[in-house]
């Protein structure tokens, strides 16, 4: 049954009607006349809300929406009161995006309402945003109690908070008997209002569009689509638009957005950081706000600073309470006395460092820079081994998440979007680039590998082989439908085989010449697993939960499989001299006898400076693989310390405090080593007397 509703949008203190304001039933959109009046047809129950797009310089005195639940006849007086908010008309303002808070009502994992409230209050104190956007998955199951906890936490700060529906916010409805063609947003709407809407602020238009279609009936999908594109069409051509979605927007969606003046697209879902540009748009994914990211990004938030035109975006880590990191103006004293090493030089790089280990190329060192903002200082930089002086800095289209590969004077880096960059090692000049199939929708966290003039690159969705000199693609092999989730485990070469770790599928070997699958072993490997290690004729990897496994490299036959890890998975592996060294997300360095699996020793690092372990906070962890140096094992902690352990006994022979997490293994060179820290410092140590 369709009814007509009528009402006014007015400045409530004065009673003056406001003309030109958009009013919608979630499908059709009308504009108020000069006196603020509107008329709109509504089908109650189908159109669940009538809402206004609050214009620049105003705020709603109550809610910006009205529920249609009890309407059975035509309605007069469906009015919306607004009041002046001059701060919302200023073109210079700061927006903070948080995402994937996953509020629960019980249990220690994920986020309690109290944890979220404390985090929001600290965020407001530290960042001082004008508004906060929450891009979906506010709760873990979408229970009414969880959504209420989220709203209670939101109300502990005075900064306006604008939430978006994400799939987890409809999980309870979806999993408890709902038809496949139902809409699963009822709980969200009961607590927080419409699941999609828009508003204006500072001369920009913000459109909140939940893009997980399977949570909407086919009819509601169509209504949502009609509203969204009409909402964009009604914007003046010179008004910049910000679109907030939950899941990564595919290229087809970005292409459709490019018809409008969309300048920024914000999303979450992957619990990972990724920033790139598409035509005139910046597209930014942000890690989880309340625990470590799937890609081991620190829990954090994204700041968008709007000026007269456009916006600059940057990612901020949300530091644990009571933890302070060093500033550039307060250098940390570095001492490695017990190891007989001295600091030769220290250099601040143009960007930060994370999981990518430094790579030596003759007299130079190549580093993948971390910059999760826009404009960005990411890319690859080359420094002199002898002095740390910058030789060149080559920008890439997006951050390179892992190490480069170098051979025959060519340095190859793969950005997170799936673009392969081949650079001249001496100068950083671009020789060629190629896009992996699916670019820029890819999520590449692996390193490329080079063998016999062929470059291999890819991730879970598929791998490609390129001619190193020309960039010509030799073959491409699809593996899965998507790269999900972010995984640093990189391909390895063994004779004529290319070994792959495919999360939630297993280990496999491809023929390097053709890309054909030679063997596959189904093992319960997950996205946080490290790169498998080739040891003689064996491939050693994390296996099922708490297992280490060794396979015959040539055939994939399981030689042994042992449940010997105290944690569910390793974060780094090293095999040598009949021993297996493993690091864990619980901050343990472990040594096992290779043949028996017996634990020979265990070492524990300290508390993390940043929350980086997926779904965890306030823990002790190691993310970098251990490295052998002379008769020691070097272990890097997220506590900001580098430990030199006796390789045979595990005794700590030296500890160096860097004050920033060390999340990539050091690079050992003749007579010394290089250590990089998360804050973008690189240190060169040399043997005393050399």
Describe the structure.
There is one protein chain. This protein is mostly beta strands and 690 residues long. The strands form 12 sheets. Strands 13-14-15-16-18-17 form a 6-stranded mixed sheet, covered by helices on one side. Strands 1, 2, 5, 7 and 9 form a 5-stranded mixed sheet that branches. A 5-stranded mixed sheet has the order 12-11-10-19-20, with no helix packed on it.
Write the layout of secondary structure elements.
Layout: E1 3-11, E2 16-17, E3 22-24, E4 29-31, E5 37-42, E6 49-52, E7 58-60, E8 65-67, E9 80-84, E10 93-98, H1 113-127, E11 131-134, H2 144-154, E12 161-163, H3 171-175, H4 186-192, E13 197-201, E14 204-208, H5 218-233, E15 241-244, H6 251-257, E16 262-267, E17 274-278, E18 281-285, E19 300-306, E20 311-317, E21 341-348, E22 359-361, E23 364-369, E24 379-384, E25 390-394, E26 405-407, E27 410-414, E28 419-424, E29 430-435, E30 449-451, E31 454-459, E32 462-467, E33 473-478, E34 492-494, E35 497-502, E36 506-511, E37 517-522, E38 533-535, E39 538-542, E40 548-552, E41 558-562, E42 572-576, E43 579-583, E44 588-593, E45 599-604, E46 627-629, E47 632-636, E48 641-646, E49 652-657, E50 667-669, E51 672-676, E52 681-687
Parallel strand pairs: 1-9, 10-11, 11-12, 14-15, 15-16, 16-18
Antiparallel strand pairs: 1-2, 1-5, 3-4, 3-6, 6-8, 7-9, 10-19, 13-14, 17-18, 19-20, 21-52, 22-23, 23-24, 24-25, 26-27, 27-28, 28-29, 30-31, 31-32, 32-33, 34-35, 35-36, 36-37, 38-39, 39-40, 40-41, 42-43, 43-44, 44-45, 46-47, 47-48, 48-49, 50-51, 51-52
Helix pairs in contact: 1-2, 2-4
């Amino acid at each position: 049954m369709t009814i007509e509703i009528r009402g006014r949008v007015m400045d409530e203190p004065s009673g003056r009607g406001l003309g030109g304001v958009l009013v919608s039933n979630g499908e059709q959109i009308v504009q108020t006349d000069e006196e603020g009046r509107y008329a709109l047809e509504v089908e109650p129950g189908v159109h669940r809300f009538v809402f206004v797009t609050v214009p620049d310089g105003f705020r709603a005195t109550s809610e910006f929406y009205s529920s249609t639940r009890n309407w059975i006849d035509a309605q007069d007086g469906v009015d919306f009161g607004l009041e002046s908010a001059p701060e919302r008309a200023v073109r210079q303002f700061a927006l903070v995006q948080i995402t994937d808070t996953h509020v629960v009502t019980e249990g220690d994992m994920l986020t309690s309402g109290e944890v979220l409230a404390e985090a929001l209050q600290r965020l407001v104190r530290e960042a001082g945003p004008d508004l906060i956007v929450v891009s979906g998955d506010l709760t873990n199951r979408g229970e009414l109690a969880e959504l209420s906890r989220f709203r209670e936490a939101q109300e502990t700060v005075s900064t306006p908070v604008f939430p978006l529906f994400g799939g987890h916010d409809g999980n309870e409805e979806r999993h408890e008997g709902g038809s496949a063609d139902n809409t699963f947003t009822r709980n969200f709407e009961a607590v927080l209002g419409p699941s999609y809407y828009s508003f204006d602020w500072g001369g920009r238009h913000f459109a909140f569009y939940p893009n997980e279609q399977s949570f909407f009936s086919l009819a509601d999908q169509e209504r949502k689509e009609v509203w969204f594109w009409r909402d964009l069409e009604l914007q003046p051509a010179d008004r910049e638009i910000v679109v907030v979605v939950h899941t990564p927007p595919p290229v087809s969606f970005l292409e459709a957005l490019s018809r409008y003046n969309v300048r920024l697209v914000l999303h979450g879902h992957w619990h990972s950081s990724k920033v790139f540009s598409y035509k005139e748009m910046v597209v930014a994914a942000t890690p989880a706000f309340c625990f470590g990211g799937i890609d081991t990004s620190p829990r954090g938030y994204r700041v968008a600073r709007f000026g007269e035109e456009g916006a600059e975006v940057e990612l901020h880590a949300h530091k644990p309470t009571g933890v302070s990191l060093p500033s550039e103006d307060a250098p940390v004293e570095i001492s490695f006395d017990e190891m007989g090493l001295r600091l030769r030089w220290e250099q601040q790089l143009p960007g930060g460092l994370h999981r990518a280990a430094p790579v030596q190329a003759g007299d130079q060192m190549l580093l993948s820079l971390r910059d999760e903002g826009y404009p960005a200082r990411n890319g690859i930089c080359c420094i002199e081994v002898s002095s740390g002086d910058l030789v060149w800095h080559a920008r890439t289209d997006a951050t390179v998440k892992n190490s480069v590969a170098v051979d025959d004077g060519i340095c190859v880096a793969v950005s997170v979007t799936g673009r392969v960059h081949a650079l001249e090692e001496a100068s950083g000049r671009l020789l060629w680039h190629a896009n992996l199939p699916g670019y820029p929708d890819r999520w590449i966290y692996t390193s490329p590998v080079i063998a016999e003039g062929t470059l291999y690159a890819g991730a879970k969705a598929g791998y490609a082989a390129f001619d190193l000199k020309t960039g010509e693609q030799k073959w491409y092999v699809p593996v899965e439908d998507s790269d999900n989730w972010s995984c640093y485990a990189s391909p390895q070469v063994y004779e004529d085989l290319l070994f792959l770790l495919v999360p939630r599928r297993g280990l496999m070997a491809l023929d390097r010449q053709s890309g054909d699958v030679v063997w596959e072993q189904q093992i319960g490997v997950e996205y946080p697993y490290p790169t498998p290690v080739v040891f003689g004729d064996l491939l050693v990897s994390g296996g099922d939960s708490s297992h280490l496994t060794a396979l015959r490299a040539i055939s994939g036959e399981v030689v042994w499989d042992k449940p010997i890890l105290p944690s569910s998975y390793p974060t780094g592996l090293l095999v040598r001299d009949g021993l297996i060294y493993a690091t864990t997300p619980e901050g343990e360095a472990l040594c096992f006898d290779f043949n028996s699996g017996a634990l020979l020793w265990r070492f524990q690092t300290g508390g993390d400076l940043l929350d980086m372990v997926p779904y965890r906070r306030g823990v002790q962890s190691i993310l970098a693989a251990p490295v052998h140096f002379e008769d020691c094992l070097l272990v890097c902690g997220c506590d900001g310390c580098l430990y030199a352990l006796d390789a045979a006994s595990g005794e700590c022979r030296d500890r160096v405090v860097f004050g920033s997490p060390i999340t990539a293994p050091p690079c050992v060179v003749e007579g010394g080593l290089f250590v990089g820290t998360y804050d973008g410092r690189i240190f060169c140590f040399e043997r005393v007397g050399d």
